[in-house]
Design goal:
The protein has one domain. Helix content is 73%, strand content 0%. It is built from 3 helices and no strands. α1 crosses α2 and α2 crosses α3. The longest helix is centred in the last third of the chain and has 21 residues. It starts with a helix and ends in a 5-residue tail after the last helix.
Length: 60
């Protein structure tokens, strides 16, 4: 089983590269089981979207 530290590292790496099939599957399983990592992933998504909008001159 993947640790939370490994999961958050993969979530960060996911922003820069495409994860392998096994990394994606293991991460998906971990996030389904771990509420903390699920919340972290959702927060990363919100921050990423806000940064994209800010960078493109869109309104928040």
């Amino acid at each position: 089983m993947m640790s939370c530290k490994q999961a958050t590292e993969l979530m960060s790496q996911e922003q820069d590269r495409q994860l392998t099939f096994f990394e994606r599957i293991n991460l998906r399983i971990h996030v389904l089981i771990c509420d903390a990592c699920n919340n972290y992933r959702q927060q990363m998504s919100v921050l990423r979207d806000a940064c994209k909008r800010f960078g493109s001159g869109g309104t928040p």
